[in-house]
Amino acid sequence: MDRYYPLLPIGIGLCSLVWLVRDIVAAWLLGRRGERAEGTIVGYAETNSTSRMIVRFRTEEGEEVLALHDNSSWSAARYGDPVTVSYDPDNPQRARVVAAPWLSLWPRTLFLTVASGILLIGCFLGFLTWG
Amino acid sequence: MQLRKFANPWCLLCGAVAGGLAWAVTLPVWAAFVIAVIIWLTAVLVFGFLFPTAPSETELPADPVAVDAGCARRAHAAAVSLQDVAAPFLEGPLGDRVSRIVWRAGEIAASIDHLVRRSQELSALVHNLAQHPHSRGRARYVESRHAEIRRRMYAATRDLEAAVPRFLATASPGAAPDVAALDRLATDLENIGYGVDIGESMVTEILGPEPPRTPQAPAN
């Protein structure tokens, strides 16, 4: 198994990048196909490991929806903050906050940098081991 | 060992990347898994069976004992050749440089010869260690060091053989010698000797210093 140890950093980097790409693609698809609505932050759904924002908004049909949004920002939103969400008209629970004062590109950039670094280190080790 | 081709890490990676990308573009997990398997098997088929890459020079040969013996012969022949082509220059103005080159080449050949002899002891040690479950870790370590020593031997032999035409190119009888090129060759030979010396220290670290040879009894 000594031969396969570079797969560990490669796997970690790859999984992180794939997760990031999936997140971006999902946001892009929702933004393209989804409807937009104004909403407000009404609290947090907390578990032992995660904390997701609960956003309340009203669909075009007038249905009031409470949806969860991953908190991927440096600063957290406060109760009552106004936000813009994009939601799937067929399943309004699938909603993401697309515009808010606290949304930032930095977390994704940092994640991308760290994941790419780990992946590159793994590839270099792989090159040395398997090259 | 066809099964080893399926365990090629690069092919596994191809499959993993394809499957990951498929999942990332929101395909279901089962579909991403199927794509990963298809890409992995395709990579094995293409790079393992249809267009297999030639083994690299750093890869160890199938019969290392025979290659080791040939290595010592080639190194010795290269050192002798270098001595022959350098002989006309030993008395000239470049005599010091040339004699140093010749001496270093002989030292490298002697070191390679010594490493080849001790390489057989290392093989025996690996074999013995691998017999006992509690010493398999040590066996793997010795095996990896042995592989490194062999790589150094083969690389040094190749470089020593290449030194002969290099010397002829820099100093041929009747032409003005290229002193700078000669100095570069001398430096390279020092580096080659240094690499072989590291191999010797690896052997000594594992096997300990070589016991002195028992002198042969004089013939009556």
UniProtKB/TrEMBL annotation, chain A:
Pfam families: DUF3592. InterPro entries: DUF3592. The chain crosses the membrane at residues 6-30, 110-130. Residues 39-98 form the DUF3592 domain. It comes from the Bacteria. The keyword Transmembrane applies. Keywords: Membrane, Transmembrane, Transmembrane helix. This is DUF3592 domain-containing protein. It comes from Thermobifida fusca TM51.
